[in-house]
Amino acid sequence: MAAPRYVSYAAPIRRNRDRSERAMSTKRSTAHSRFKFRLYVAGDALNSTLALANLTALCNTHLLDRHEIDVVDVFQEPQRALADGIFMTPTLVKLAPSPTQSIIGTLSKTQTVLLALGLAAIAA
């Protein structure tokens, strides 16, 4: 009588990487990427103006010549904002590189914004 065959359906074991190795991996993957942002604003309201100024400063400091900012005024294009699921302004959406990330507010806390958008590794 032949011995029974056992088949394992468990997922293969992956080696756990420590934080510094993951950070370096993220840094390498975003080091040469082109970033695309879309900022939804409400006309020239103070919060919207601050968000645009803070985003521009952040990009000029950390993503020089590697970024594109698309500004959408929800007063001029309300249907686009609704179709994109934007209900508050200012709202920043990082479109590229993946994954898509969103943050609401004036973007005044640079480190918090970088962390929220998954860009903290490039600031280090």
Plain-language structure description:
There is one protein chain. This protein is an alpha+beta fold and 124 residues long. A 4-stranded mixed β-sheet has the order 2-1-3-4, with helices on one face. It is built from 5 helices and 4 strands. Helix content is 38%, strand content 19%. The longest helix is centred in the middle third of the chain and has 17 residues, at 46-62. The chain is globular and about 35 Å long. It has one domain (34-123): Glutaredoxin, CATH 3.40.30.
Quickly count the domains. Answer: 1
Shape estimate: globular
Quote the beta fraction: 15-25%
Number of strands: 4
Largest sheet properties = 4 strands, mixed
The CATH topology, please? Glutaredoxin
Give me the Rg, rounded. Answer: 21 Å
Structural class: alpha+beta
The run of helices and strands is HEHEHEEHH
Put simply, the count of helices is 5
- Give helix % range: 25-40%
What's the CATH architecture?
3-Layer(aba) Sandwich
Biggest sheet, strands in spatial order?
Answer: 2-1-3-4
